[in-house]
Automatic annotation (TrEMBL), chain A:
It is a multi-pass membrane protein. It is found in: Cell membrane. Residues 15-206 form the ABC transmembrane type-1 domain. Its main location: membrane. The lineage of its organism: Bacteria, Pseudomonadati, Pseudomonadota, Alphaproteobacteria, Acetobacterales. It comes from the Bacteria. InterPro entries: AA_ABC_Transporter_Permease, MetI-like, MetI-like_sf. Keywords: Cell membrane, Membrane, Transmembrane, Transmembrane helix, Transport. Belongs to the binding-protein-dependent transport system permease family. CysTW subfamily. The chain crosses the membrane at residues 20-41, 53-77, 89-110, 148-170, 190-213. SUPFAM superfamilies: MetI-like. It comes from Limobrevibacterium gyesilva. One of its GO terms (cellular component) is plasma membrane. NCBIfam families: PRK10782.1. This is ABC transporter permease.
UniProtKB/TrEMBL annotation, chain B:
GO terms for cellular component: plasma membrane. Pfam families: ABC_tran (PF00005), NIL (PF09383). PROSITE patterns: ABC_TRANSPORTER_1, ABC_TRANSPORTER_2. Part of the ABC transporter FtsEX involved in cellular division. Important for assembly or stability of the septal ring. Belongs to the ABC transporter superfamily. GO terms for molecular function: ATP binding; ATP hydrolysis activity. This is Cell division ATP-binding protein FtsE. Residues 22-257 form the ABC transporter domain. Keywords: Amino-acid transport, ATP-binding, Cell membrane, Membrane, Nucleotide-binding, Translocase, Transport. SUPFAM superfamilies: ACT-like, P-loop containing nucleoside triphosphate hydrolases. It comes from Limobrevibacterium gyesilva.
Length: 219, 368
């Protein structure tokens, strides 16, 4: 191997940091995004718990976050990040803006997946005497599952890209390594390895996600 | 009828509710564009298959959806088994809905649940334990003839099979009332017949009451006991299917009925008739035989009694709900006064007679 052992360690650490940032942010985004998307969908004019004001406010907030470029969002919420993570620098700190951006991103994707569930199915459940919670748990979420999984895949892939930017606030990770060694210290082989790794990871996630969607959809 | 005082209206509603399983009184519902229901009152007696027929946009779906309050009327009353549904809170309404089955035009099956799991859904929602659920599901699937497809997914089924699943699902909670919204409109004619016969068979076996809506009079003729014709949010005619088919009162109903039992004349039939004798007039009549006179030799008797010629051009015999009726198209030749006497005599026997000269003239003109 033409990488020094020290460089191999750096690479391994960076890969771990990227994995941590992506997975933690994605986990938070899924956990927060699904209830928010359900709330958006339910409070919509044709939803099962119509509420114009809630729907409007939530929609505006989500769109506002989505329209701020990630690099600016990161800087803009530094005080919040410091309050939550105890520091504004480092991998843990980078998870905060990543999670916020990913949540706003995935909420819209989840909402689209939920909206694609045939209204007739909700109606059938209502006619059976289903409560609103039962409609969510027995109809909306399970029927939207393929779309929800596809949304998670897209979010994970985007997070890999965003996490590289998080290197700018000392988040570490593969993107950061590539910039610092590959670019600033003229080590093209490091850059090459980073790029190949990122491509493989993204491909792998997409392939797995697609396979899962195919497996669970019964169309 | 809208002049009923509130007191009388309430009294009538209570009376209806006593006899009928479903009683709707003066339902009104408007959307931004127009009134979908404009004062509809109906009573559906227990054990009947009640059809609501109407053109697209007449308000049929809105009306049906008011029965289980998927749609809340702006005003009016909905009684099920004597219970006023509009006063129920959400939880009580859900309990009532579990006793009402609903079947949909587009089946509305959950794509990611197997056939068995689709049928089990209402039981799951009602908190039935798993063991009891699977026993009931097996029973329901054999009831609709799908015992061998329990593990299949909706995408693997034909339209008719999907609707069988829909029906099994609707029956899971042992409902007393089955609502069908165009349950056969997405199916081919043979499958339609199959599903209709299934619904009738289930009605008989489970003593269901069925309220179904359709835009096809053929569906009404096939299985309904009673029918209401809806036009622009109003019931324009209502009664026993046989009566409505054989004696439609409203022009719209007559049009609907004609689709199913209309006598179309064979091409060129009029041209092949011998020319009328000088001094006589020719009327083309459509005679509908129903009830006790269906089998009486009315044609020969009229011919003898009134000294007129009656030439049969076309005819068919059919049955509605087991009651036979016949339709004949005849060319009646005779002096005008005699023709009038003869038609009056036949009407007096309870036959329905229309002059269809205008309709008949067209093919004749073409043939000439
Ligand atoms: N949710 C709605 N919003 C606005 N207008 C509606 C709505 N539902 C029904 N309407 C209107 O009410 C009228 C009656 O509709 P409805 O669906 O009850 O008719 P229908 O007899 O079932 O017709 P079809 O045979 O086409 O299903 C129509 O003019 C329709 O446009
Ligand atoms: Mg309709």
């Amino acid at each position: 191997m033409w990488l020094t052992p020290a460089m191999q360690d750096l690479l391994l650490d960076a890969a771990n940091e990227t994995a941590l940032m992506v997975l933690a942010a994605a986990g938070i985004a899924i956990a927060a995004g699904l209830p928010l998307a359900l709330l958006l969908q339910a409070t919509a004019p044709d939803g099962i718990a119509r509420h114009a004001a809630v729907n409007r406010v939530l929609g505006v907030v989500v769109n506002a976050i989505r329209s701020v470029p990630f690099i600016i969002l990161m800087v803009a919420i530094v005080p919040f990040t410091r309050a939550v993570a105890g520091s504004s620098i480092g991998t843990t700190a980078a998870i905060v803006p990543l999670a916020i951006a990913a949540t706003a991103f995935i909420v819209r994707l989840f909402e689209t997946a939920l909206r694609d569930v045939d209204r007739g199915l909700v109606e059938a459940a209502q006619a059976m005497g289903a409560t609103r919670l039962q409609i969510v748990t027995h109809v909306l979420v399970p029927e939207a599952a393929p779309g929800l999984v596809a949304a998670i895949t897209v979010t994970l892939v985007s997070l890999v890209g965003y996490s590289a930017m998080a290197g700018a606030v000392g988040g570490g990770g593969l993107g950061d390594l590539g910039i610092r060694f590959g670019y600033q210290r003229f080590m093209p082989e490091v850059m090459a390895i980073v790029v190949v790794l990122l491509v493989l990871v993204v491909q792998g996630m997409q392939t797995l996600g697609d396979a899962l969607v195919r497996r669970i959809s019964r169309k | 009828m809208n002049a009923l005082t509130p007191h009388v209206a309430a009294h009538v509603a209570a009376q209806d509710a006593g006899r009928a399983l479903v009683s709707l009184r003066d339902l009104r519902k408007s959307y931004a564009s127009a009134a979908a229901l404009d004062g509809v009152s109906l009573a559906v007696a227990r054990g009947r298959i009640f059809g609501i027929v109407g053109r697209s946009g007449a308000g049929k779906s809105t009306l049906l959806r008011c029965v289980n309050l998927l749609e809340r009327p702006d005003s009016g009353q909905v009684h099920l088994d004597g219970q006023d549904l509009l006063t129920l809170d959400r939880a009580a309404l859900n309990t009532v809905r579990r006793r009402i089955g609903m079947v949909f035009q587009h089946f509305n099956l959950l794509a990611r649940r197997s056939v068995a799991d689709n049928v089990a859904l209402p039981l799951e929602l009602a908190g039935v334990p798993a063991a009891a659920r699977s026993a009931r599901v097996a029973e329901l699937l054999s009831l609709v003839g799908l015992a061998d497809r329990a593990g299949a997914y909706p995408a693997q089924l034909s339209g008719g099979q999907k609707q069988r699943v829909g029906i099994a699902r609707a029956l899971a909670g042992r409902p007393s009332l089955l609502l069908c919204d165009e349950a056969t409109s997405a199916l081919d004619p043979e499958t339609t017949t199959e599903i209709l016969l299934l619904i009738r068979d289930l009605r008989d076996r489970l003593s269901l009451t069925v309220l179904l809506i359709t835009h096809e009079m053929a569906v009404v003729k096939a299985i309904c006991d009673e029918v209401a014709v809806l036009e622009r949010g109003r019931v324009i005619e209502q009664g026993r299917v046989f009566d409505v088919f054989t004696r439609p009162q409203h022009p719209t109903t007559a049009n609907f009925v004609a689709e199913v039992i209309g006598t179309t004349l064979p091409d060129g039939a009029l041209g092949r008739l011998p020319a009328p004798q000088p001094g006589t007039q020719r009327r083309i009549l459509r005679i509908l035989f129903a009830g006790p006179h269906a089998s009486r030799a009315v044609i020969s008797e009229a011919s003898r009694e009134f000294g007129i010629d009656l030439n049969i051009i076309a005819g068919r015999v059919d049955a509605i709900g087991g009651a036979p009726f016949g339709v004949l198209a005849v060319a009646a030749d005779g002096p005008p006064g005699r023709l009038m006497q003869a038609t009056a005599w036949m009407r007096g026997l309870g036959l329905a007679i229309d002059a269809i000269d205008a309709i008949a003239a067209e093919p004749a003109a073409l043939a000439a």
